[in-house]
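Quick start: what a row looks like.
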Amino acid sequence: MAEGSRMSLWDYAIFVSLFVSSTAIGLYHACRRGRGDLFSSERNLGPVSVGLSLTSTFMSAAQVLGVPSETYMFGAKFLQMCLGQSFNVIITVFIFLPVFYRLRIKTTNKYLEMRFNKTVKMYGFILYIFATVFYTGIIIYAPAVILNQATKLNIWMLVLTTGIVCTLYTTMGGMRAVVWTDVLQTLLMMSGFWVFTVRGIFRVGGVQKVWQAVYNGGRINFGDFNPDPTQRYTFWTLFLGGSLVWLAMYGVNQAQVQRYISCSSEKSARWALFINLAGLWTVVGSAVCCGLVMFAFYKECDPIRARILSTTDQLMPHFVLDIFEGVPGIIGLFLVCAYSGTLSTVSTGINSMALVTLEDIVKPCWGQMSEKQLKHIPRALSFLFGFLCITVAMLCSLLDNEVLRASFTVMGVTGGPLLGIFILGMFFPVANSWGVLTGSAVGFCLSLWISVGASFYPPSPAMIGALQTEISGCSFLPDFNHSDAFVQQNEYSNHSDINRPRISETLYGISYLYYGPVGTIATTIVGLIVSYVTGSKEQDKVSADLLWISTRQRKIAQPIALNPAVMDEVDEHLFHSHSFCQESKEEDYAY
């Protein structure tokens, strides 16, 4: 493949159509949107649209680029990540969903205020905004760099276009526009994977030859039960680590909770999560199949070891351009596939950050708001966070090119401690505010320490279990030295192994999927200890509605198809009785 490929008119037309269609959906729903519909959609969304939206939210370009390349390097065992996702959905359906849905709250931070106090709510707010802004910035910037290297499209054009379009249709159409653009983008993403996989099978010579290549290459490796936490992907890493990472994203993350509590009933919300699970299995399975076909295509000439490419994240665009060489419109098709996930993630992040700021900060301090203020302030917040995400994306120039690892690291370091806070709140009546604040601080610092150490002393490919690749078919390259290429195999780490401290091979070497679980476990253990030491909150002072066990033992009124007027009345009561700007006092939050 030539060094970078120029886009034709067909490519531009196909790529631009994604942004035009997304903006059109925003305009359509802006014309139909009524009062209160910008964020909550008045709890009247169907399970299918919400389920596909949940699927698309975290299947960003990082996954489109990262999952096939990780499958190429580590084998089909990456598919076991879906087992962790399945376990996460079951826990969310039976534990977190009933609590959030039945409390009739709009933000997860409101739960923290009701269960603990305003300080914990503000801590959760700050942690969520920090995490979402940086995660969204990574999702905007990192794929732009990779695609620039493959297609020579201008990086800043990609960054600005993504940020501006997402901000535009999110601001105009609100939640409903975000959900329906997510549906479109999910279908485009899956279609892209299928097209690339089928074309790759055809170029390799059929399904039988693909299977023979991946089997002989050791890529069919589902039976890896190695308990070593430094192995990047094993059954335990993907199931246990993956379960807690995805639970932090689906169980308590505002972006996801906001969607499934927008369903018309709790039953619809449960169905939405199961539809989302089917979508995740389909998308991840398609990406893994694409990665296996990619390995079969390059079985005799690994572009990384041959130094054709400098990072594994370039494998997917390189593969697409190779199998469709000379076919017009293919670069545009790949960009649509990659950026469908990015647009979904970015728009979701902007929408959720605007909501938590409005509900947790603006309304409590502002008090009663006029119709005009309710119309313009949410839009201003969406523009503000869109601008912040674009700014962070522009500051990510020093980011490591492994976009999948970077995105999961940010989610793990911040989401792990936040998940621990909600576990303490819902499962342990003795937990108090001192406990959750201290525990989450310890969990966050521990996860951050490990992730920063791993960035300074990244493990070698052999240490984390990268599989062998071949270069015997690369003899056509001029002045190619096979022994030198062997030394440089899988060169996606530029750090020297000389003078590495011992801790770099133990604590810093653990799989990035364990960063979140480390934070969750540390938060829970330290939180319980500190709660007991400082004087636990008596169980009879904690409203039964705030504990998971109570939702299983007794029937709580379920807000099925709530009247919007009733919701406004409930919200008004919450804003005046629990205002962040009022002085703190002991309150009984039982409904």
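That is the whole record. Residues 26-32+62-470+499-577 form a domain with the Sodium/glucose cotransporter fold (CATH 1.20.1730.10). The chain has a mean pLDDT of 78.
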